[in-house]
Write a structure and sequence with these properties.
It is built from seven helices and nine strands; from the N terminus they run βαβαβαβαβαββαβαβ. By secondary structure, it is of the alpha/beta class. The protein has one domain: Rossmann fold, CATH 3.40.50. The structure holds nicotinamide-adenine-dinucleotide.
Length: 249
């Protein structure tokens, strides 16, 4: 089914993991994809004309503005660029905190801002999808900058939806749980911690990038035409229930 035929979709974080899966599914669904990443997407996506590859650091405001201003038309945007930046409150320093905020929050905001300007200028009722996280909804130890940045993206999504709704532009997010991508490679050797983490997901398994990409492509498509300001959990039930099994009998 070609749900995205003739739609032009900008995907950041396109060189790896979830962004790369979105690129593949968008192409399969008939879209023209503009793949952007700080790590040259041309060497990862295999995309050629009519698609486009852009080397872009989403935290560089001038570069984002210049790259997106060069686009004539946009129907959809996926903000999948992101970094982890591990560290607890005690471990984090201001520089690392700022870097995570710059990439995850400011980068997402900048792409939303300039991409929506293209949509507004061309009177396009487009769709923007941001990458939140299950850890944007719930707290967790050892990753304070990342978790706070993902909470901010949750709110950014609602506020951007409010600013753009009257123009027919939809802004949504997905909130993934543990997805096996290069970002979570460090968990592969984490033994009991990984087992415990997986057990916190109701489906008792990690998710795959393609499963998140499918949800993103739904939100990009006209099938989601009355959905805006929402964050769709794609987390195997991680945020649905955190109650240990009890036996009161
Ligand atoms: N993997 C998970 O378990 C998981 C869970 C929840 C949310 N997410 C979110 O999904 C998104 C994608 O994650 P992933 O697992 O595919 O990670 P990944 O590390 O595989 O891919 C992230 C991509 O973003 C790019 N990137 C990083 N900084 C950038 C910058 N400044 N400018 C442009 N590109 C930049 C990287 O080069 C990389 O290609 C991230 O926002 C992440 O926080 C992932």
């Amino acid at each position: 089914m070609n749900k995205l035929t003739e739609k032009t979709i900008l995907v950041t974080g396109a060189s790896s993991g979830i962004g790369a899966a979105v690129v593949r599914q968008c192409v399969q669904a008939g879209a023209i994809v503009i793949a952007a990443d700080r790590d040259d997407p041309a060497t990862h996506t295999g995309l050629d004309v009519p698609h486009q590859n852009l080397t872009l650091d989403v935290s560089d405001a001038a570069a984002v503005q210049a790259a997106i201003a060069g686009l004539k038309h946009l129907d959809g945007v996926v903000n999948a660029a992101g970094i982890v930046g591990q560290g607890s409150l005690q471990q984090i320093d201001q520089q690392k905190w700022q870097h995570v905020m710059d990439v995850n929050v400011t980068g997402t905001m900048l792409v939303c801002k300039y991409a929506s300007e293209v949509m507004l200028a061309t009177n396009t009722q487009g769709s923007i999808v941001n990458l939140c996280s299950a850890y944007g909804l719930t707290g967790g130890p050892g990753n304070i900058a990342y978790n706070v940045s993902k909470s901010a993206i949750w709110q950014l999504t609602r506020c951007a939806a409010a600013d753009l709704g009257a123009s027919g532009i939809r802004v949504n997010a997905v909130g993934p749980g543990y997805i096996e991508t290069p970002m979570t490679d460090m968990l592969k050797n984490a033994g009991a911690f990984r087992d415990q983490f997986i057990a916190m997901h109701l489906l008792k398994r990690p998710g795959q990038a393609e499963e998140v990409a499918t949800a993103i492509c739904f939100l990009l498509s006209d099938d989601a035409s009355y959905i805006t300001g929402a964050t769709l959990p794609v987390d195997g039930g991680f945020t649905a229930a955190h109650v240990p099994m009890v036996n009161l009998g």
